[in-house]
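re: the backbone from monday

yeah here it is again, tokenized this time
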């Protein structure tokens, strides 16, 4: 509208001479307005909800920075997570997740359910995650809910989780039954050589933060943004 008024203000016989000047001025104004609009947008709020793979993950800061650059708007990633906990604990933390009023919820809650000594049966784990998804969807109907499979386990940490794949499949099935999203980060880890994977996950369960960022962030970035963000 401003550009049109400027154009009309220029005498007809001088418009050709002023055409490029006005065009450049209008492009600058449009560019500046776009940047201002992006800065004024509220942040995209993400809650990462899970176990030590989130609490000790270290990938959240990378996701926050990369997604903000991709979307050209602020992004804030917070965590509701605790090492060693199961889906039963997660059921008691839903008020904390809801209080954040997130736009996106990232969930990984199978890892400790799958340990032999936790005594969380596959059926109970599946029921728990179903209840979690139902409550979150009911209380946050506009939020995107994304379940995740994280990294592989090895050594003793793998031995105490002999059926972890079944737990992942059960949680994935509950998400799919509700039309919710699922991101599988395991293929990214499987593309590493055995030596590189061992170096990236030295204790057999918890990736180094820089390795987790390198593998997990690109997968989440493309899934959330729905486009190539240069990763």
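seq for it, each position gets an aa:
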């Amino acid at each position: 509208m401003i550009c049109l008024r400027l154009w009309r203000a220029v005498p007809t016989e001088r418009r050709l001479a002023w055409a490029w000047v006005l065009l450049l001025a209008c492009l600058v104004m449009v560019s500046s307005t776009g940047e201002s609009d992006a800065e004024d947008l509220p942040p995209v709020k993400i809650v990462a909800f899970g176990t030590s793979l989130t609490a000790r993950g270290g990938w959240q800061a990378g996701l926050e920075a990369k997604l903000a650059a991709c979307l050209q708007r602020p992004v804030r990633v917070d965590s509701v997570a605790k090492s060693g906990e199961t889906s039963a604990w997660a059921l008691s933390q839903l008020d904390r997740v809801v209080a954040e009023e997130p736009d996106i919820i990232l969930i990984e809650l199978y890892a400790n359910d799958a340990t032999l000594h936790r005594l969380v049966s596959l059926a109970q784990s599946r029921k728990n995650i179903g209840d979690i998804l139902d409550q979150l969807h009911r209380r946050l109907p506009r939020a995107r809910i994304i379940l995740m499979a994280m990294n592989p386990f090895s050594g003793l940490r793998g031995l105490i989780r002999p059926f972890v794949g079944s737990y992942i499949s059960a949680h994935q099935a509950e998400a799919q039954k509700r039309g919710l999203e699922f991101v599988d980060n395991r293929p990214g880890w499987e593309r590493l050589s055995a030596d590189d994977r061992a170096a990236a996950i030295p204790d057999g369960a918890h990736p180094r933060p820089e390795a987790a960022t390198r593998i997990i962030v690109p997968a989440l970035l493309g899934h959330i943004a729905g486009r190539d963000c240069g990763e």
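The chain has a mean pLDDT of 89. The two ends are 38 Å apart (CA to CA).
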